[in-house]
Amino acid sequence: MEMKIATVRFAPVPGNPDATIAKLPPLFDGAATVDLMALPELANSGYAFSSKAKRAAR
């Protein structure tokens, strides 16, 4: 059995999970023949990573 896997890259909206999630459905539209789609870790959380410099400045 073969499995077709797709990875997805997209630009999340930091700090806004609703806006980030709204960007996902169009990415799925072309995936009718895909068995598994792999999204980035925390893709739907809206989590914003701060840089070391920003953390140090606090």
Structure description:
This protein has a domain at 1-29. The chain starts with a strand and ends with a helix. By secondary structure, the protein is of the alpha+beta class. It has 3 helices and 2 strands, in the order E-H-H-E-H. The chain has helices at residues 17-22, 24-29, 52-57; strands at 5-7, 36-38. It is elongated, with a radius of gyration of 15 Å. The mean pLDDT is 81. A two-stranded parallel sheet has the order 1-2.
Q: What share of residues is helical?
A: 25-40%
Strand neighbour order, sheet with most strands = 1-2
Largest sheet: 2 strands, parallel
How far apart are the termini? 53 Å
Please report the number of helical segments.
3
Strand content is 5-15%
Helix-strand sequence? EHHEH
Shape, per Cα inertia axes: elongated
Which parts are unreliable, with pLDDT below 50 for 5 consecutive residues or more?
none
Task: Detail the topology: elements first, then pairings.
Blueprint lengths: L4 E3 L9 H6 L1 H6 L6 E3 L13 H6 L1
Parallel strand pairs: 1-2
List its traits.
2 strands, alpha+beta, single chain, 58 residues, 10% strand, two-stranded parallel sheet
Task: Give a short summary of the structure.
With 58 residues, the chain is of the alpha+beta class. Helix content is 31%, strand content 10%.
